[in-house]
Amino acid sequence: MDFSSKLLENAVNEVSRLPGIGKRTALRLVLHLLKQPTENTKYLSEALLHLRNDVKTCEKCHNISDTVLCDICQNPKRNAEIVCVVEDIRDVMAIESTSQFKGLYHVLGGKISPIEGIGPQNLQIDSLIHKVEKGEIKELIFALSSTMEGDTTNFYIFKQIEKFDITTSTIARGISVGDELEYADEVTLGRSIVNRIPFEQSIRG
Amino acid sequence: MDFSSKLLENAVNEVSRLPGIGKRTALRLVLHLLKQPTENTKYLSEALLHLRNDVKTCEKCHNISDTVLCDICQNPKRNAEIVCVVEDIRDVMAIESTSQFKGLYHVLGGKISPIEGIGPQNLQIDSLIHKVEKGEIKELIFALSSTMEGDTTNFYIFKQIEKFDITTSTIARGISVGDELEYADEVTLGRSIVNRIPFEQSIRG
């Protein structure tokens, strides 16, 4: 790209370092900002800087939070004995939006992936084991993504906690609500048959 | 979306105000910044702020520039008598990347579009007419996009300059180099037949 301005080139380069944003998209975004009032760019820059400098991680569940303990961990109405293990904050947001879970979370910060150089020591696994050792948790729900890395991480944690008196479960895998059977992949369909549930239970919602 | 952090929510809201970026994408981008070193967010914010506050518009061609006159207008090797009229800076960059044009540009800043409320007074049309009146320009090349708005803008400018002794042209429309005829739309194909060029000319370039 032939830039007529170093300032423009610099801004485009920085924006295009974001994942999934190429030079052309970055240029489009930056030129958009130039057409908007100066304040818009100011608000955007400040919001990003404030977030990066001031955001905290909840001491208990490692969720992103503005306070030392996040709103969920602070909420006395939630059942602290049931803990849902997730990869990252987006999974917390997804589960919260269902309003079906009233326990607490434990955010690992990723999953074990030798290819990406992520081992157990890079994740919040020790603090989870520690919670289990202290007897704080009665049930642990694994809600990691259904990939080899997710399964590996589940298994790694499970091996370290199986000696404790604790219930473990994983979220149900099966055909999505509203999906046609013929379009489901065979692994998912297979699992949904093996892990079938009593009909009475299914109509309860 | 249920945000566990106001700082996060604010950053996601600001990022999702950019065109073509929804809340989910904004969240992905912002969480990416949180995983990167603090400096990356600092560089990004500073680059955007510097650009927005310090970038100039070339006095002569209205291209984005770090100086009062842009590099192209300052270049004594370029032919100031041939001026290519374009919508915005991206078109300048596209034409510059071909290395086929050695004249100057005139950036209108958009095209006449009653639907979007953009009239001739919102564009850099008066300054173009003024250049023509002063006799600075011998040839004007219209390189606006081939849409109704582009054609309207071309025609509006043409009506005001036709009384002056000046050559006007538009860039050639036709089948893209490397394209199969059968996939071309009929308007383009039709124009490419009407505006056919001597064979000897076609093999020169």
Automatic annotation (TrEMBL), chains A, B:
Highest taxon of source: Bacteria
Domain Toprim intervals: 81-176
Pfam families attached to this UniProt entry: RecR_C (PF21175), RecR_HhH (PF21176), RecR_ZnF (PF02132), Toprim_4 (PF13662)
Protein name: Recombination protein RecR
Family: Belongs to the RecR family.
Zinc finger region(s), C4-type: 58-73
UniProt-listed InterPro entries: DNA_Rcmb_RecR, Rcmb_RecR, Rcmb_RecR_Znf, TOPRIM_dom, TOPRIM_RecR
GO molecular function: DNA binding; zinc ion binding
GO biological process terms on file: DNA recombination; DNA repair
Biological role: May play a role in DNA repair. It seems to be involved in an RecBC-independent recombinational process of DNA repair. It may act with RecF and RecO.
Organism expressing this protein natively: Polaribacter aestuariivivens
Keywords, ordered alphabetically: DNA damage, DNA recombination, DNA repair, Metal-binding, Zinc, Zinc-finger
